[in-house]
Specification:
The structure holds 3 protein chains of 3 kinds. By secondary structure, chain A is mainly α. Chain C is of the alpha+beta class. The longest helix of chain C is centred in the C-terminal third of the chain and has 27 residues. Classes of the chains: A mainly alpha, B mainly alpha, C alpha+beta.
């Protein structure tokens, strides 16, 4: 019995070591090649001609700074807007005794099952003067019914007794919301906020469809254009095309890769708090 | 109802106000909540409902300035279009395949990772497998397109050749036979780790007493997985499947960034079809593509209602 | 109560957030337009133009100065102030973006162009839609008429009933085949050895298998291009003329003047067979299938020559200079350690003097949008402000040709050094006062600026101020092209073709790709095309021929 368990454990360790390698090797290959002045087209996971040239090229190119900034701005603004709407909506939907609650939830549900489609959306955004503007990312992702429902599920995990106590103290809904609910949902806010941030930062297709001015595009779009159209600046730093590609990929994933170890703690606790349900 | 047309107004009023008052009374304590919902309401109205008005163009020809009503003409064209049906079938295959594979592998991973006793190792593996989720599809596609290239800059083909495993480069992303498996694999690589999150959450909620009880009964680890862990997960699995079922038709970006003309037959999905007909056609007919979108929405609606029904049957509660 | 108020404020703030993002967000293009003055004359105050990448004075490269100098010069010419707004779109989806703009807006809207650039194919699609203004009269009466040296280009744009919707300030230009000289030396050949397709093929093979870059491996390729054929843009075959030869994968008038569908002809099968053989032999870089023009040329002049190609067919003239400069910048060297050069391959026997050769494509054009009010005042004003001045032979034409004074070019005495500190490439340029010269590229300070939108050599009415860029390489390139080019077929224009153009291009691209990589045979490719689009093709041919009579 005891011995069997050990074999089992060993297998587990081996399998999960392999799994981790499958995930990490492609990423590591990208990082390694981004530091290599010449293209390495074989299985080699360290740079043999190390250079920072790829990164220098990227950060000295004016064309890349603006998209990066646009990405940061839209991600920050969009995440705050998204959290505000998701918490408000989730909190209200959690009031099961509220008259019209089911009506409101159907109001939201319908949007998950029926949408106008690409063209009608495009025409509306045109009317709102959001075509060819980076704020389209904020408006489009700011309201997310799925995240709102997740938020609602988080709130369900808060013991009803706490609400009742606050209500007895004469608190208004808004007071309960930010005195009781929000402080208890820090982890949830971090988690859902992260989801908003990832979605907005990583959005490429919205930009592809709606934005044409170089001053309004985000970093993902710029990256894709660089790699797929080969629109890389090949000046000054003498690195191969692939080095530049890999360096720009690293730049595109860097913010989350850096922040991730810190965010993950919040994230996991957040998910768990939300999942504790009656 | 209309008995007292013009006389006895006061009496009339009281009979009418009475029921209203109870609703108002019931609503009054919730005024604050309604106000709080207002911004959500307005955003949803603008972002989701306003475009719904635009679906009327599904019954129009809409080419440049030429906009006129044609009834069901677009749908007749749509149903006769071979390319559309191929996209429809592909959507189901790719989307459902990806959903099932992803969920299946995520469950396996979370169940066995849960068995890992060393907490540090467990956390470490979790950290690693969540990573790719944070990369955009644009980035993931860029990585794999570069890696899998058939040119001598493609590192996978060159490596396999140098190891002597293959003689000729394999055209992974342009081969009709290989495109779907490659697509599933890339999707697994990117999303499965993240898919485990929700299962871990459930696992951490399992009452340890259940395991202790099973142990007392002399259950092996595999038996504990079979009789304690899996039943606890089954509800979550069903929820995940149901929640995603309604969205299967929406698949766009993963395909959009990975497909190409040579594998169109096995890769073109409804959304990419709409995209090409709308944005890559010199003078597109917006009416036609709106009709395709409307059809997609309608089928999606049926799927959603089906999953809601299923959800009610299985867990006694709808999906909202 | 106070809290309720607070939630109200919160709502209001959110709404305000939405509001401000709406108004403040969009790229600030003011509505275009003009007013009618007291004399009843139309005064054009703002001019919105939509352009592609052919305006090389981009936002990063002195566009602000260009616009400012344009506004100054044109205001002076037309006698009232005018503002110029340039919307420059990404080339990869230019036609799509234009169609979205034209479909969802109208003259007077913010961002709706008063004038824009259209390729010859786009012009054919739009000229029947009523969206464009017939500028035949304005063109005939233009001041620049007296100086036009190449009248036929614009005359060719006219429809059967004499209407003209596009204005071509230059002729089209085309592609020639470039070969890396160092690679030729390495395999022991010269361009004089390449007379026929077989010679050409042998050369590509040598580049693939004889290690022309000298790195000890055989990872090089013979040739790369942006697609085996560019099936959505005329003249389709210009990037791989040697393989396509007489085949033309679209509608064209044959030697009897009868329109035919070239894709259904046997010549296409032969061309696909040649491409398929070359692909099998590994002499065409497989990246060709997916590459855009940028990717193809980046790979050609990459600093990593071990996976590069020896042959690249690309635009003539200025591009000979640009490709060479880029190779030098990347320190591409031949086996003796000298900087690599390009040589131009005269057309091989099979394509010499045929439309399979170095094709002088139909010129890209400028068009004016029609507001449809039946009054030509606005449109004529746009013509006068934009096109008339563009070919004024002087100040404004110089702006369009070379860019902004003091930024892209200058006539002041100055001295500058490019590639400072690089012994091999360092070069100092000294100019006296009054001497016209191009300045360093604002985007890339180590190379010289080349041109803005108009090519001084290709323009239909030359500059009269004597400003010439004497770059010998560009002149050599242009001379070579002029000596070896043939005019392209006119673009086909038919209602059915407009409807099916995208479908046809997509289907043909898929079939060509499949046939080249050997998934299907060339015969099957053409047969499948006939099966699926035969009747559409017949209708189009019929329409084209009845219009031609």
């Amino acid at each position: 019995m005891q011995k069997k368990a050990t074999t089992f454990d060993v297998i587990l360790y081996i399998v999960f070591a392999l799994l981790s390698l499958i995930i990490i090797v492609p990423i590591w290959k990208v990082v390694s090649d981004s530091f290599n002045a010449v293209g390495v087209y074989r299985f080699q996971l360290w740079p043999n001609d190390p250079t920072l040239g790829g990164y220098q090229t990227i950060f000295t190119t004016a064309k890349l700074f603006r998209p990066f900034l646009n990405s940061v701005i839209t991600t920050v603004v969009g995440t705050f807007l998204g959290l505000a709407l998701a918490t408000l909506g989730g909190y209200v939907l959690n009031q099961y005794d509220m008259p019209g609650r089911s009506l409101l939830s159907y109001f939201l549900l319908i949007t998950m099952i029926f949408s106008g489609g690409m063209i009608p959306e495009y025409l509306v955004m045109k009317q709102l003067h959001l075509v060819d503007s980076m704020w389209i990312l904020v408006v489009k992702h700011g309201i997310n019914v799925y995240n709102l429902v997740l938020m609602k599920n988080f709130f369900e995990g808060i013991p009803a007794s706490l609400y009742e106590a606050a209500e007895l103290d004469g608190c208004t809904p808004m007071q309960i919301f930010y005195k009781v609910v929000l402080p208890l949902s820090k982890a949830a806010l971090a988690s859902i906020g992260l989801m908003f941030a990832v979605t907005i930062w990583n959005d490429y297709s919205t930009v592809q469809i709606y934005i044409t001015s170089p001053s309004q595009v985000n970093f993902q779009y710029q990256l894709r254009v660089m790699i797929m159209d080969g629109d890389t600046p090949t000046t000054a730093y003498k690195v191969s095309q692939n080095t530049l590609y890999y360096a720009s990929i690293v730049c595109a994933i860097l913010p989350f890769m850096v922040a991730y170890p810190f965010l993950q703690k919040y994230f996991v606790t957040g998910i768990n708090a939300g999942a504790v349900k009656e | 109802m209309s008995t007292n047309e013009n006389s006895k107004v006061p009496q009339n009023e009281t009979t009418w106000v009475a029921p209203k008052k109870t609703l108002a009374q019931r609503m009054k304590p919730y005024m604050g909540f309604y106000l709080m919902f207002l911004p959500v309401f307005i955003f949803v109205l603008i972002v989701y409902y306003w475009p719904m008005l635009g679906v009327r163009y599904a019954f129009y020809t809409y080419k440049l300035r030429d906009i006129h009503f044609i009834g069901l003409g677009n749908f007749a064209k749509l149903f006769a279009e071979k390319e559309f049906w191929s996209a429809f079938v592909n959507t189901l295959i790719l989307s459902v395949g990806k959903l099932l594979l992803n969920t299946f592998v995520a469950v396996i991973i979370s169940v066995f990772l849960n068995e890992m006793l060393n907490l540090f190792c467990k956390k470490f593996v979790q950290t690693i497998i969540y990573l790719p989720h944070f990369m955009s599809w644009a980035v993931v596609a860029a990585i794999f397109t570069l890696f899998l290239s058939t040119s001598s800059t493609g590192f996978v083909n060159e490596t396999l050749k140098s190891w002597g495993w293959i003689k000729q480069s394999i055209d992974f992303l342009h081969s009709k036979a290989l495109w779907r498996p490659i697509f599933y694999m890339i999707d697994l690589w990117k999303e499965t780790g993240w898919g485990t999150v929700v299962f871990f959450a459930t696992l951490s909620g399992i009452d340890p007493g259940l395991y202790e009880a099973a142990e007392l009964d002399g259950a092996t680890r595999l038996q504990k997985i079979r009789y304690v862990t899996m039943p606890a997960l089954s509800n979550t699995i069903i929820i995940v499947l149901i929640l995603n079922l309604a969205k299967v038709l929406n698949i766009f970006e993963p395909v959009f960034v990975l497909y190409n003309t040579r594998v169109l037959e096995v890769s073109d999905v409804i959304s990419t079809y709409i995209y090409r007909k709308t944005f890559l056609t010199a003078i597109p007919d917006y009416g036609y593509t709106t009709a395709v979108g409307l059809f997609k929405s309608l089928v999606g609606m049926v799927l959603m209602l089906a999953s809601d029904y299923a959800s009610k049957r299985i867990r006694g509660r709808g999906i909202m | 109560m106070k809290k309720k108020l607070l939630s109200l404020v919160a709502c209001a703030a959110l709404l305000a957030g939405c509001g401000s993002s709406n108004s403040g967000g969009s790229a600030d293009t003011p509505a275009s337009g003009g007013t009618t003055n007291e004399n009843g004359e139309y005064v054009l105050e703002t001019l919105n133009i939509t352009v592609d990448g052919t305006i090389t004075a981009t936002v990063d490269a002195g566009q602000a100065e260009f616009v400012q100098q344009w506004e100054e010069a044109v205001s002076e010419k037309i006698g009232h102030p005018i503002k110029l707004n340039i919307t420059q779109l990404d080339h990869s989806d230019y036609s799509g973006t234009v169609s979205r703009t034209l479909t969802t807006g109208q003259p007077g809207d913010a961002g709706y162009p008063d004038a824009l650039i259209m390729s010859a194919s786009m012009l054919r699609q739009y000229q029947t839609t009523g969206l464009l203004w017939n500028l035949a009269n304005a063109y005939d009466n233009a001041e620049f008429q007296s100086r036009v040296t190449l009248p036929s280009i614009n005359m060719n744009l006219r429809t059967a009933d004499g209407a003209q919707y596009g204005f071509a300030p230059t002729y089209g230009n085309g592609c020639v085949t470039y070969i890396k000289k160092g690679w030729l030396d390495a395999v022991g050949k010269t361009v004089d050895d390449i007379k026929t397709f077989d010679d050409y093929y042998a050369l590509l093979k040598a580049f693939t298998t004889e290690d022309p870059d000298g790195d000890g491996t055989n990872k090089t390729y013979g040739v790369i291009a942006a697609g085996f054929a560019k099936l959505d843009e005329a003249p389709y075959i210009n990037y791989m003329p040697e393989f396509w030869q007489g085949a033309y994968p679209s509608f064209y008038p044959n030697k009897d003047g009868v329109w035919v569908d070239g894709f259904a002809e046997d010549a296409t099968i032969d061309a696909l067979k040649r491409l398929n053989q070359a692909y099998k032999d590994g002499i065409i870089d497989p990246d060709t299938e997916e590459a855009g023009t940028k990717q193809a040329r980046e790979k050609f002049f990459s600093n990593d020559q071990t996976t590069s190609e020896g042959v690249f067919t690309y635009w003539a003239g200025t591009w000979l200079r640009t490709l060479t400069d880029n190779m030098n910048k990347n320190e591409v060297k031949n086996q003796n350690g000298e900087l690599e050069e390009l040589v131009q391959l005269p057309p091989i026997k099979e394509i010499k003097d045929t439309v399979g050769g170095y094709i002088n494509r139909e010129a890209p054009t400028w068009v004016i949008t029609d507001d449809g009010d039946g009054n030509d005042a606005r449109e004529q004003a746009i013509f006068d402000a934009l096109f008339e001045t563009m070919l004024d032979g002087d100040k404004v034409q110089t702006l369009w040709t070379y860019g902004a004074e003091g930024v892209h070019w200058s006539t002041e005495a100055e001295e500058f050094t490019l590639n400072k500190g690089d012994a091999e490439k360092e070069k100092t340029y000294t100019y006296e006062a009054g001497q016209f010269h191009l300045r360093p590229n604002p985007n890339d300070p180590n190379s010289l600026w080349k041109k803005n939108h108009l090519d001084a050599v290709l323009v239909i009415a030359p500059l009269t101020n004597g400003f010439v860029d004497n770059d010998p390489l560009i002149q050599e390139g242009n001379a070579f092209f002029t000596a070896n080019c043939v005019d392209a077929y006119p673009a086909a224009s038919s209602a059915t073709l407009t409807d099916y153009e995208a479908d046809l291009a997509e289907a043909k691209k898929a079939l060509v790709n499949k046939a080249v990589v050997g998934e299907i045979t060339p015969e099957e490719a053409v047969q499948q095309y006939k099966d699926e689009f035969g009747s559409v093709s017949d209708t189009i041919v019929e329409e084209l021929n009845s219009a031609a009579q």
